[in-house]
User: What shape does this take?
Amino acid sequence: MRHSNPMRRSSLFKFVLTAIALAPCVGMMPQRALAQNVAKPAATKPQDTQKAAPAATQATDREAVSATIKALLAAFQARDAKAVAALWTETGEFVRDGEGSVQGRAALEKGFAVVFAEKTKPQASIEQGPVRFLSKDVAVNEGTVTIRHAGEGTALTSTYSLLLVREGQTWRIAQFREGIAEETTSLQDLAWLIGDWKSAAGEDAEVVTKYSWDENKKFIQVRFTIKSKDFSRSGFQVMGVDPATKQLRVWTFEAEGGIGQAVWERDGEHWTATSTGTLVDGRTLTAVNVLRRINDDTFTWQSTQRRLDDDGLPDLPPTKVTRVKTK
Assistant: This one.
């Protein structure tokens, strides 16, 4: 299931484009005009382009280009629109494939200022590819950028291509081109669960869970105990992203010997877990479990569409679970 809210499905830089469109005297330009506006390095003599830059010099330039990219990320995380825009050339531009572009340092600063005023407080991370040089004063870099908004678990990942030029002793961005954003699921989407939880007083089932990171933060480990008048179960789970399918998967190991697994999918603030398990006596139990996030300290859990082998079982009522506060 996918959330259909257009703001949630928008990438960070699409917000910049939207913000610019709302600002007076600042507009969008068609993509066919890009070639006329991208900052270009000074012309060089033909024989100059045949000379390879000394290895030591190129290594230094590569570090300087990477430093500009890191500065872009740092300024973004600091929510400093002026510092972000200062990393572009005076006429540099941002382009989003299929949606247009924003040109000029002043326009970019206005756009980022609007983005940083958003309550969702977007955070970015970059997976940077190698830096390549088209000439001694022009470099390109490609990779992926992932945007996550506060209160919204699902991340948006898109490709990017950076064109950087040397201005004096400084490398600046002449063009940042972003590809189409794709919604992805990250284990960080469930980071808010880290801690101890217990069902609220008066619930039909007593639920006690503890969520904790493994040492490399590649998996979330869960210890659980569930007791009701009809059954009692305990065990542990491992939550992680399946490298083969990129799905969020949970593996369950019950204390009595039963095992199971589930694929989790996000729909807004809700998660559904389609699970299949084998009980210790060999019977198969399937269910669709629903976790509804109320806030950072409260969620409800319900097991629905349950079947034991070929027999249907009644849905369990929602159970309210709250965070155990440390004193």
Q: What stands out?
A: The first strand starts at residue 88 and ends at 96. Residues 274 and 288 are 5 Å apart (CA to CA).
